[in-house]
Amino acid sequence: MYPEKSNLYRMPWSMNDNPIGWVEVTDVCNIKCKGCYRLIMGEGHKSLDQIKEDILFLKKWRNCDNITLAGGEPILHPDIIEIIKFISGLKLKSVILSNGLALTDSLLNRFKESGLTGISFHIDSTQIRPEFNKQEISSELDLNDLRLNYAKMLYKFGIYAHFGITVTERSLAEVPSFIEWAVENMKMINGISMIIYRGLPVAEGVEYYARGKKVDIRTGSLGYTDETEKIEKPHIKAQDVYAKIKDHFPEYGASSYLGGTIDHRTYKWLIGNIIVNDKGKMFGAYGKKTQEIAQTFHHLFYGTYIVYPKKRIGKKIFLMTLFDKSVRKALYKFLKYVLVNPVRIFYPINAFGIGIVQAPDILPDGRIEMCDDCPDMCVHDGMLVNSCRLDECRIYDSFLHIHVDKEKHPETAGQSADPVES
Ligand code: SF4
Fold this sequence. Notes:
The protein is of the alpha/beta class. It has helices spanning 48-62, 80-89, 105-114, 144-157, 175-184, 238-248, 288-302, 325-340, 390-396; strands at residues 9-10, 20-24, 32-33, 66-70, 93-98, 118-122, 127-128, 160-167, 191-196, 200-201, 206-210, 213-215, 225-226, 254-259, 267-277, 282-285, 349-358, 361-362, 368-369, 377-380, 383-386, 401-404.
């Protein structure tokens, strides 16, 4: 079960007015992640001048609120401090996507002085990490101590900490435990996201074309080509992750979404914020009106839409009861909870962000469905391209087109219309 689109706020983000500007600063990395969007081709670090040019391009053409620094591992870029200072000088927020491995207290101190807003950690069981002697990591929960260590480091310096995982068939069952862990530590963690794994299948009967010419795709041609990926396989969808969370936390709900570029039924981004106190007691989630007000007012007063708030809203979220029936329900539960023991009114409360992202899907006719008004676009050859498919442009000078032989793959799965919440 998942929410009806009419009960959610469709984020107002677009190609030219989008809170995120994405810059890939390096193709150097210090670990290996399954399904990484980036093939390490030995290009090394992008020059500081080129990075500054990309940032100015994004500020101009994206009207962004933050610059997300990605790669490779951005922390390894020798000019990372200069890059952060440049972003701060433009009065933009800066967020680094990192696996954490190269992070030290002294580096964090310099990040703080340079004005870094936050770090979004990618730490999950699809990775081969030196902390685990490069052995396979069997459970997401085995990584919680490592995650907590990084959360504590950032908390010391007052830097925003976000954690993301890639969700696979194997790890879907662990999503609720990951959320429980994050909520338990929400004093130090600002939000989490779950990105559903996608690989490009390498299989007989699946052909790839670039600029009209057939190209030979095999495992390793791109970071995300995968010979274990079966095109017929019914993939996990955003609504499956939503349902898994909702089953365990009935108070959870999404407030907003981004759909797909082809199928009107697809959910690509599902964004939710649970209202929860520091004892892990959930009261509800905010609804579409709160998200609409947040986006509209941020745009009105600051000129941009928003994805990373600088401050926690705390109990002020209950002011939204005037407009948002989901918050009204949460307030009612909160008051009942406080009546049992009035001391509880002093427990800190937060609207904790939970994001779900469904990466590109191959439809039965071979078309690839993207996120409508993709937030994670970067600059390539003077044009904006979806960062999840940047490598196709780097290597083949265009996005790939796919031809699926129906005789060899008669059961190719498409999107199905699942039941919705009433
Ligand atoms: S289309 Fe954009 S938002 Fe969606 S997965 Fe790709 S880069 Fe991310």
